[in-house]
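Ligand-bound model needed. pantoate.
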Amino acid sequence: MKILATIAEAQALPNAKRRVLVPTMGALHKAHGELIRVARQAAGKDGEVAVSIFVNPLQFEPGSDYERYPRPEKADEEFCRNGGVDFLFRPPVEEVYSTGRSTFVEETSLSSRLEGESRPGHFRGVCTVVAKLFNIVAPDAAVFGEKDFQQLAIVRRMVRDLDFNIDIIAVPTVREKDGLACSSRNQYLNPDQRKQAMVLYKALEAAANAGEKSANDIVVLARQVISEAPLARIDYVELVDAQSLQPIEMVGPNSVLLLAVFFGKTRLIDNIRLP
Ligand code: PAF
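Prediction:
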């Protein structure tokens, strides 16, 4: 596995038959393992898998966990090596963002609600770095997890609107045994919070399986289940159309229930398709 730290090195890579990128912020866990596995499959025998690890300061709102975000460099390197990754692109911040930069990439519709409302500037940071990674690594395809449902929708929109010739491959959410979606942020949870965090998937499943059609009833039900966990503080629970991410009143053919919930300072997100 080659480890690259500069844009020049990445851009000097010889053209691959098919290059598949897995963009990450590191602290790799089994959900990343699944993204890498899918990337390997999509790249094919003669193709290449590139993983980027970059904790992107632009997508962290002021006062959030940028500084304390885990950066286990050696373990991440080993993880990639064991996953059959060909290139690890791990640039320092100064390499990606030059002083005096004044250009950003911003999606202005899907980004305005849900995570966008709770985390102003977050998706501008995501779009800017993902567009840069696409330009630097020049992949034929890129792999994203469905746990970050809104991010996936926004990246797809950016790819369409800005004519990136890149296939976006979505990978279903990987979960722990009790249903909690795998996330690098789960490690911030103390044992009590971790135990209670399983209510998120319980709430999503209960809402999806109840046979309810009204958004209001579905949201009330999910909120009720979450309230069984005294340490949970709901940010939002919303039923939306999976394409437009606009709220809907009744379950339709393309509905998704999205939630964000705090346990202490740790904010977890998850989602489920309905019906
Ligand atoms: O999902 C993530 O880990 C990040 O938002 C991404 C896509 C790597 C951009 O920094």
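The longest helix spans residues 122-137.
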